[in-house]
Amino acid sequence: MVERHTTVDAPRHRTARETLPLYAVAAVVTVVVLAPLAAPGYALLYDMVFVPRQPLSWDLVAPAQSLPRAVPMDALVSLVTQVVPGWLVQRLVLGGAILLAAVGAGRLVPTDRRAVRLFAAVAYAWTPYLAERLLIGQWGLLLAYAALPWLVRAALDVRAGRDGALARLVLAAAPAAITPTGGLIALGTVVLLVPDRARPRPSALAVAGVALLNAPWVTAALVTGAGGSSDPAGVAAFATRSENWAGPLVALAGTGGIWNAQATPASRAAPLVPLATLVLLILAGVGAGLLRRRLPPGTGVRLAVLAGAAYLLAALGVLPGGDSVLRWAVVEVPGAGLLRDGQKFLAPYALLLVVCAALGAERLLAGIDRDVAAVVLVGLLFLPVAVMPDLAFGGAGRLRPVSYPADWRSVADRVADEPGEILALPLSAYRAYPWNPGRVVLDPAPRYLPGTVLTDDTLRVGDVAVAGENPRLREVRRMLADGRPVAATGVRWVVVQHHVPGGVDPAALADLQIVHEGPFLTLYRNPAVPPGSVAAGHARWAVVAALAAALLLCAAAAFSALHRRPTAW
Amino acid sequence: MRRTLTLVVSGLVAALLGILALGGLSAAATATDDEAATEARNVSETAKRAGKQDPYAPEVYGTR
User: Fold this and answer.
1) Do A390 and B61 touch (CB under 8 A)?
2) Would you say A139 and A263 are in contact if contact means Cβ atoms under 8 Å apart?
3) What is chain B's mean pLDDT, rounded?
4) Nearest-CA distance from A454 to chain B in Å?
5) Best interface-test mutation with B: which of A47, A119, A382, A499 has the largest number of B CBs within 10 A?
6) DSSP for A99-126?
7) pTM to 2 decimals?
8) Do B61 and A461 touch (CB under 8 A)?
9) Residue A516, phi then psi, degrees to nearest 5
């Protein structure tokens, strides 16, 4: 076998001729996956909600009554959409995530063979993990997935003591840290890969820097009134799901296994899919030794521990005894609810699998005829797409932009004139709109309407209802269930959404004044409650301070990286 | 002879994967909005017939 120089170990400037094919392939993959987004509008699917201009409201920056699942993601989107339209932001984040995931994985592979890099790029951008998290609309997690190869590379550079590595590490971790899960993945990656007894200062700074990037959501979790525990029913509901006959552990081995059948590409149910997973695992097994040898001593083991921990975390809900531990943890350990949907932590495993498989291909082909090797590599490039073709074109039509009915703009304008708490009825966290056919989406009201919007936070997975954490919503739900009118709940506005199943009892709307009546939305004002803005309070300012500190750190890192010199901190 | 055979077999496998990939891409590309909605409707009806929760009912986040 021919050992080649590693780029992770010894970076060098590449020519455009060397890097262009990688970027070209990444761009093609991005276009193929997101082609439907060439049409105007907003792709609204499950957790993916973008609106024309997201208001910069306190509840999006620092939710007072719910868990900070989208902190600081919502605050950042609100800031950006003040100057960039939401439809463009959606395309930039989705396109950027897929493109950077492919390029990052390609660049991370320690090889000089271009085709091996291309294989890694396609394989990492065409994983079931990416497909499933895209189809469930968790774009923040896709950013973390895309940032991971760049973060690993920066972490190895910090260990090697390269100039500017700390700044690059912070910049790579920043997109990951826009959600709590991504932030934890980034922190775990840095904690496992960077520490070096010979270089304690850069190691400590790297860990501290990524910890600071996590500060906004940690602070928000500490100050929210939602408490820290979650409904243990969510452990079974969100546990890894078997895609086919091979069971959940094999699904995870192939980087799939999301809990939601509707977010899983149909091709994953094919009986031959486990065979493709086996091919990938064999390739990875063959390439693992090569990776270990081409990385600095000890690094391969650290990467393996990181990937193993990710797999274990993902599998915990389906391992014997693991579900019991999780059920106990989500009730007793504040914040452990994050672990319920464990499959989302699988990203580091996916990265190591792809890098090892690419090197496995290189190793297997090293001793054979050049022409044969070229043909096999072309076949390998097609393999991820052949196994899961229905990721293409927005998951075969699932991701398709639509336009919000004009009602939404009208209601947002009316509410903006008289701020106050808004209740969205009928109570339901997710909606299926006739103008967004065949898709379920998180109620857009909290992101479209200015102010605090109360929407149901009970998550229904099949027949199981996973209780939410919002105490204010619990109070409103109880009052409505007791037959009391909405006016008694103390909200200033009520938005009733039409053409969605589950109507609203007209008696419940007694004493409210209609201020807008449209085909899709009716807005009621509660005259018993005067208009008034939400008080900020010290707790919320603490979240803002944490966010400002994280943004300052990113700005300093960007400044340092642009000047190509070691960071001052 | 052995080299030729290897090349032919590898070529056939690569071609098969290529055809599968491109065929799948074509199928995905021609999936229209109406087809996606119809598929969702079919899934809903199948679930209802089986006495299971409709995964596209608005209150349902998804089914396992």
Assistant:
1) no
2) no
3) 79
4) 15
5) A382
6) HHHHHHHHHHS--S-HHHHHHHHHHHHT
7) 0.93
8) yes
9) -150, 130
Contact in structure between A63 and A220 (CB atoms under 8 Å):
yes
Nearest-angstrom CA–CA distance, A233 and A326: 10
d(CA A247, CA A475): 41
Q: Is the ipTM of this complex over 0.95?
A: no
pLDDT score, position A481:
87
Reading the block at residue A485, the tokens are: 């009118």
Q: Which of B1, B10, B43, B52 to mutate to test the interface with A (most CBs of A within 10 A)?
A: B10
Q: What is the dihedral of CA A320, A324, A326, A328, to 10 degrees?
A: -160
Query: How many Cα atoms sit within 13 Å of A114 on the Cβ side?
Result: 13
Q: Phi, psi (5° rounding) for residue A401?
A: -70, 145
Q: Mark B29-56 as b/e (b = at least 16 C-beta within 10 Å).
A: bebeeeebbebbeebbeebeeeeebbbb
Mean pLDDT is lowest, of A6-20, A110-124, A368-382, A499-513, for A6-20
Q: How far apart are CA A59 and CA A37, in angstroms?
A: 29
Backbone angles phi, psi at A379, to 5 degrees: -60, -40
Question: What DSSP state is assigned to residue A52?
Answer: S
Q: What is the mean pLDDT of residues A346-373?
A: 93
Taking phi first (over 0 means left), then psi (-120 to 50 degrees means alpha), and beta for anything else, what does residue A542 get? alpha
In angstroms, the CA A462 to CA A460 distance is 6
Q: Quick one: tokens of A465?
A: 């209802």
The tokens of A52 are what?
């024309």
Q: Model confidence at A1, in pLDDT bands (50, 70, 90)?
A: very low
CA torsion sign for A34, A35, A40, A45 is negative
List, in order, residues 6 or more apart from A262 with CB less than 8 Å away: A135, A440, B43, B55, B56, B62, B63
SS3 (DSSP) at B2: helix
Cα A320–chain centre separation: 28
